[in-house]
Amino acid sequence: MELKATSVLLLVCVTTIIILTSTEVDAIACCLKITPSKMIPKRMLVSVSKHQIQDKSGRCDIDAVILFIKRKRHCTDHAVLDRLKRLKKHRSIKG
């Protein structure tokens, strides 16, 4: 009986740690402020490896586009998507 109670207690502790850790990571993943897209230089936009849309109707408080540039996250507004599209189109025409 004592082993069963210890096992249940251990399971509850591990579950609590997992929940707290995952919540903390999710909170860190949200953009808290954004840089206006017009302030991001073209040379940085060329280096974007991927982007992600953050929606305020989800778990985050603001709408944003997260740009991944050289393993760093840069939060900006949705207008950057038009700039990225034009840049990609321009680069595909060049070659």
Task: Describe the structure using short key phrases.
3-stranded antiparallel beta sheet, 95 residues, elongated, 51% helix, alpha+beta
Summarize this entry quickly.
51% of the residues lie in helices and 19% in strands.
Overview of the structural elements:
- InterPro entries: Chemokine_IL8-like_dom, Interleukin_8-like_sf.
- Residues 1-27 form the signal peptide.
- Residues 30-78 form the Chemokine interleukin-8-like domain.
- The structure is a single chain.
- The protein is of the alpha+beta class.
- It is 51% helix and 19% strand.
- The chain has helices at residues 2-29, 42-46, 80-94; strands at residues 48-54, 64-69, 72-76.
- The protein has a 3-stranded antiparallel sheet.
- A hairpin with a 2-residue loop joins strand 2 (64-69) and strand 3 (72-76).
- The longest helix is centred in the N-terminal third of the chain and has 28 residues, at 2-29.
- It starts with a helix and ends with a helix.
Over all CA atoms, what is the radius of gyration?
21 Å
Helix and strand succession?
HHEEEH
The beta-strand count equals 3
Helix content: 40-55%
Residue-averaged pLDDT: 82
Global outline = elongated
* Main pleated-sheet profile: 3 strands, antiparallel
N-to-C terminal Cα separation, in Å?
72 Å
Total of DSSP H or I helical runs spanning 4+ residues? 3
Parts with pLDDT < 50 across at least 5 consecutive residues: 23-27
Sheet with the most strands: spatial strand order: 1-2-3
SS-derived structural category: alpha+beta
> Strand portion, in percent?
15-25%
InterPro entries: Chemokine_IL8-like_dom, Interleukin_8-like_sf
Protein name: Chemokine interleukin-8-like domain-containing protein
Signal peptide: 1-27
Domain Chemokine interleukin-8-like: 30-78
